[in-house]
Structure formats: structure tokens, C-alpha cells
Design a protein that fits this description.
With 208 residues, this protein is an alpha/beta fold. It is built from five helices and eight strands.
């Protein structure tokens, strides 16, 4: 199956997304008479090169929020949930669990994902500024959303920071996922909703 390539790479996607976000924020400032304080949060690793052009155009800080998918032990590609380094956990509602038998491997899968998230945060957080997110507009960015689990659990963690709003921003997402996704943020900004949608990488020319 062939796919229409929508973006050259993550930086290209971020530049396109940045213009849309900038225009919305500008209009919001005009309407309210107040320029909102914005902070860009990237989901590493793929969300960082998308988020960088956004933070640059908005002239605002860039930091990270780390979330990892919890993989099914029998199928690493199957996300059964997601977790953040702060301990927020979100499980899928798929009927793949048998409570009497699966609690142990669910715990193992959760701990593995948590350890991966903490390791990644340890690598990247020293380069990030210390920020006060209270009453700010937090712009959460990823390079694409396939299942929504990681961005949803990240938004849940960010809600504890008492922001004015959380915007979920990504170059592409499946059309059918949009209604579910909108419950996790105050605004959703997406450039493309291609169908069929199997993998985020299918729509990038370069996706290292």
C-alpha cells in the first residue's frame, strides 16, 4: 500500500504547525486584548524536532514531558496503555485483559515502561529550563498521533501544573481518533487527518 508523503521531515512538519499555532494565538490576543503566556512541551524523542520551530516562532520556552507506551509482552507493537515519569497511568479499554491471570504481566509491562520513561527524562531534562506553568497556555507537541495513549497521559500529568489551557498539537492524526482526543485538551490543532492510517512514519519522507 502506498501513502501520500505529507512532510519532508519532522522539522518541516513543525514549521507548518508553528504557523497555524502562531495565527491562532495572535487572533486570541487580538480578541482578548491579552497576550497569553505560552510554553511548548515536546513528547520526546520524535516530538522535540517538531516542537523546536514552534517555540522559535512563538518566542517562548521549550521543555519536555516524558510519556511511554506500555507494550503488551506478547506483542511489543501493541500499546495497552501509557505512563509518565510522574506516575500517571492510562490503560486502554480494549478487552485484552483477564484480571485473574494478567495482573502480574501488566505490572511488569508498566514497570518496564516507567523505567524507560525515567531513563529518557534523565538524559534530556538537564537541557530544559525550569518553568512555572501556572496560568500558561501549554502547547503539547508530538510528531504524530496513532493511538493517542501517550499524548493523553501526558496531558493528564500537565493538568496538575494548573495551566490556563492545554493545546494538543500534532502534524497528523487519524480522523476517527479526533473525538476521543479532544477530551484530553482544551484545543486540538492538527494539520492532516489521512486515511488509511497505519503508522505515523508512512507520511514522512525522512523519519529517523
Amino acid at each position: 500500500m502506498s501513502y501520500t508523503l505529507l512532510f519532508a521531515n519532522r522539522t518541516h512538519a513543525g514549521e507548518l504547525l508553528a504557523r497555524v499555532i502562531h495565527d491562532i494565538l495572535t487572533q486570541q490576543s487580538i480578541d482578548s486584548g491579552v497576550k497569553p503566556v505560552s510554553i511548548v512541551y515536546a513528547l520526546p524523542r520524535g516530538g522535540v524536532p517538531v516542537a523546536a520551530p514552534i517555540a522559535r516562532l512563538l518566542d517562548c520556552p521549550l521543555t519536555i514531558v516524558v510519556a511511554k507506551k506500555i507494550s503488551h509482552p506478547g506483542n511489543p507493537e501493541l500499546a495497552i496503555g501509557a505512563v509518565t515519569t510522574s506516575g500517571n497511568v492510562l490503560w486502554t479499554d480494549q478487552k485484552i485483559f483477564r484480571p485473574k491471570h494478567d495482573m502480574r504481566w501488566r505490572e511488569v509491562a508498566l514497570n518496564k515502561a516507567m523505567n524507560q520513561a525515567k531513563y529518557l527524562e534523565t538524559q534530556l531534562i538537564p537541557a530544559c529550563p525550569q518553568l512555572n506553568a501556572e496560568d500558561a497556555t501549554l502547547i503539547l507537541v508530538d510528531d504524530g498521533i496513532a493511538t493517542g495513549m501517550t499524548v493523553a497521559v501526558a496531558a493528564t500529568a500537565m493538568r496538575a501544573l494548573s495551566p490556563a489551557a492545554i493545546w494538543l498539537c500534532t502534524p497528523l492524526v487519524p480522523q476517527k481518533l479526533l473525538p476521543w482526543l479532544e477530551q484530553w485538551g482544551d484545543r486540538t490543532i492538527v494539520l492532516e487527518t489521512p486515511e488509511p492510517f497505519w503508522s505515523v512514519s508512512n507520511f514522512y519522507t525522512e523519519f529517523p
